[in-house]
DNA sequence: CACCCCATCCTCCGAAAGGGGGATGGAGGG
DNA sequence: CCCTCCATCCCCCTTTCGGAGGATGGGGTG
């Protein structure tokens, strides 16, 4: 006897996925898909228009991507619960989503029952995490993030630049470049530029 | 008046995507989805059972992945046309799929009409490529592949190992390590180990 | 006002990396 | 049979890295 079905919005840039999700909630009595969007800007507009209770959102999208959309969405409508539904469970993605204040984080291999449950739980104020995401949140030692300037240096390292070239490019001395890199190594727990770029890429920092 | 509708099989490890694809072909008169599979092994079994004309297949799957499945599928049933439908258009993925003999390569952001067209074209013996894939195939200068041994060295470089450590690990002299790396640099068009690992990762070699 | 982080700069120094040559034996293809 | 690729090794030499130790000024924040 749900007088008011739960209003759900779907945000994903892939038509296939949007259709799949819509189909998965098609015959669910207490949940109604009231809107679809293919990027962050569309999501904001549709949220204003249709006032969903829960939003299922992909993170990687063209234009305004998931995290940006979540931040703006929560600023405009703090009562809307956002559940991330994505293919990736990398540290960087999970961390950014958590920081943006999501109610759940699921992976796209989730079966339909789990999605139904997640939407209901989120609407009720609960939190839902995919198992691998939960463990990712546990097992992190410190997660020291390089500063913006340090990342700038690291990006040039990833392109194969020598310290001297980096110094010229960034208009600083080679000594400073070395200092930045020393700090990057410490923060990423490595001791070579090759390992540093690998770790940074894996964490989604580059 | 299609006496025989086109038989289509869907292979993807994400339930959401399978449902979405099924829905996209639901009201298409001349195409019938006769099977679904969530990994390569299941795909082979279902293909034998249902004899599809066209297979829509993801590349990244647990167990037997897309390329392996395509190879075996084409060995067993050369008449089946395989269309790859994936999120990624990296050089390595495209190249491997092409080598396996696919009839098409589409990205998951393709609209439904394009999917319909692709399936029909493939069944008729034609080829379908997403625009970005087509251009990826054009713009490649030579694509010198490092040898197996060279890649083995590069993998250790990516872990941050020094040449001396790599030499010990692979039971060869440091000189040989440097020679291998020199060749890797030349083949990848770089001049530092940091850039080499980045290029290798982007090409899916690591 | 302390305190910490960031960005910038410094010296000294040994160890690593990378570029230039060249050499060998074996496998595979035309 | 020749030629190419691979894997292995050698010399020499210059440049670059990376470690260790600092220092300075500027922003924030408690």
Automatic annotation (TrEMBL), chains A, B:
Keyword Electron transport: no
Residue span, Response regulatory domain: 7-123
Pfam family, one: Response_reg
Ranges annotated as spanning the membrane: none
Annotated positions of the 4-aspartylphosphate modification: 58
GO molecular function: DNA binding
CDD domains: LuxR_C_like (cd06170), REC_NarL-like (cd17535)
Keyword Iron: no
InterPro entries membership: CheY-like_superfamily, NreC/VraR/RcsB-like_REC, Sig_transdc_resp-reg_C-effctor, Sig_transdc_resp-reg_receiver, Tscrpt_reg_LuxR_C, WalR-like
Listed GO biological process terms: phosphorelay signal transduction system; regulation of DNA-templated transcription
All residue ranges annotated as the HTH luxR-type domain in the record: 139-204
Keywords in alphabetical order: DNA-binding, Phosphoprotein, Transcription, Transcription regulation
Annotated PANTHER family: TRANSCRIPTIONAL REGULATORY PROTEIN NARL-RELATED (PTHR43214:SF24), TWO-COMPONENT RESPONSE REGULATOR (PTHR43214)
The protein, known as: Two component transcriptional regulator, LuxR family
Annotated organism of origin: Microbispora rosea
Lineage: Bacteria, Bacillati, Actinomycetota, Actinomycetes, Streptosporangiales
């Amino acid at each position: 006897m749900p007088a008011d079905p739960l209003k759900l919005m779907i945000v994903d840039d892939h038509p296939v996925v949007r259709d799949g999700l819509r189909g998965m909630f098609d015959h669910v009595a207490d949940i109604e898909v009231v809107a679809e969007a293919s990027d962050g800007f569309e999501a904001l507009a549709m949220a204003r228009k249709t006032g969903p209770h829960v939003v299922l959102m992909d993170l990687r999208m063209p234009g305004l991507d998931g995290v940006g959309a979540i931040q703006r969405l929560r600023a405009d409508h703090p009562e809307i619960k956002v559940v991330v539904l994505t293919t990736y469970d990398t540290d960087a993605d999970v961390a950014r989503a958590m920081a943006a204040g999501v109610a759940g984080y699921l992976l796209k291999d989730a079966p339909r029952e789990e999605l139904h449950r997640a939407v209901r739980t989120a609407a009720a104020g609960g939190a839902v995490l995919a198992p691998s995401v939960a463990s990712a949140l546990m097992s992190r030692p410190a997660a020291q993030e390089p500063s913006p300037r340090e990342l700038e240096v690291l990006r040039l390292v990833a392109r194969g630049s020598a310290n001297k070239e980096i110094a010229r490019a960034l208009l600083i001395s080679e000594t400073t470049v070395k200092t930045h890199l020393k700090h990057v190594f410490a923060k990423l727990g490595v001791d070579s530029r090759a390992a540093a770029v690998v770790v940074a890429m894996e964490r989604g920092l580059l």
